[in-house]
Amino acid sequence: MEAVTQNSPSPSLPRLGMPAPPFQAETTHGTIRLADFAGSWLILFSHPADFTPVCTTELVAFAQIAPELRQRNVELLGLSIDSTYSHIAWVRAIEQHFKTTIPFPVIADLNKEIATLYGMIMPGESKTETSRCVFVIDPNGILRAMIYYPLTTGRNTDEILRLIDALQTADKHGVATPANWRSGDKVILPPPKTIEGAAERLKAGYECTDWFFCKKELPKDG
Ligand code: BEZ
Questions:
Q1: Strand 106-108 to strand 74-80: parallel, antiparallel, or no bridges (unpaired)?
Q2: Among candidate residues 58, 22, 16, 30, the one with its CA nearest the CA of residue 157
Q3: In whole angstroms, how far apart are CA 203 and each of 182, 188, 192, 199, 210?
Q4: Is 55 annotated as catalytic?
Q5: Does residue 55's CB lie within 6 angstroms of at least one atom of ligand 1?
Q6: What does the alpha-carbon distance between residue 163 and residue 180 come to, in Å, rounded to a whole number?
Q7: What's the CA-to-centroid distance between 54 and ligand 1, angstroms?
Q8: Three-class SS of residue 198?
Q9: 59 lines ligand 1 (CB under 6 A)
């Protein structure tokens, strides 16, 4: 592993709850801007490099969940520090060898512009490759979740689907979701902020273990 020489991260790195940094990019589907995704959720993800084995498994795995994401109004957008020609060749090789069509665009970020803007390069791991980052951006362009995985560990697309379900459920119902929650499980009521709120909560008929820990079922259709 390379030695880290930089002490502090850039102060302008993306932050949860803030607008995602805008960009315009060359992709395998032509020029794309972040603003093109307004009204949809977006998963912007980076991989270290084209024609590498773990990344190949990830691209296939993302392609496999693309229909389920579409049902949830979520688009996918990949990125690495490679050229469009390399992306095209890799996508074609994946189609040939893994019988999988990659239905989403992949950004060619050869000058590292977007990788730097989003803090996708972890110099302690590699100065020339993006780590395995996932940025979940909501239909209003707000950054809602970030996941960072190292070069050697492929991501879990079940967890990414679970994260999307949790975010959309939280937004729709004003609730939170517990550890290892899956769609259909009981949800958590955010903790009360006042003594009065705590007392009301206990009277309201939720499943409360204590004033700060209440769960409820969501309607089955929702
Ligand atoms: C891979 O995708 O296989 C990979 C990429 C960078 C470092 C290690 C593995």
A1: parallel
A2: 58
A3: 27, 16, 13, 7, 11
A4: yes
A5: yes
A6: 10
A7: 5
A8: helix
A9: no
CA of 208 to the centre of ligand 1 (A): 46
> How far is it, in rounded angstroms, from Cα 173 to Cα 187?
9
The Cα 184–Cα 69 span in angstroms is: 17
Tokens 């093109």 sit at which residue? 36
Q: 155 C-alpha to center of ligand 1: Å? A: 12
For the segment 61-90, what is each residue's pLDDT rounded down to a tens digit?
Answer: 999 999 999 999 999 999 999 999 999 999
Q: 209: Cβ below 6 Å to ligand 1?
A: no
Query: Which pLDDT value is given to residue 52?
Result: 98
pLDDT at 6: 52
Full strand arrangement of the beta sheet holding 24-27: 30-33, 24-27, 106-108, 74-80, 41-46, 132-137, 143-149
pTM over 0.90: yes
Facing residues of 27 across strands?
30, 107
Beta-carbon contacts of 11 under 8 Å, excluding residues fewer than 6 positions away, are: none
List the chain residues with pLDDT less than 70.
1-11, 221-222
CA distance 210 to 189: 12
* Domains of the chain and CATH, by start: 24-155 (3.40.30.10), 174-216 (3.30.1020.10)
Q: Tell me how far apart the alpha carbons of residues 217 and 222 are, in angstroms, rounded to a whole number.
A: 10
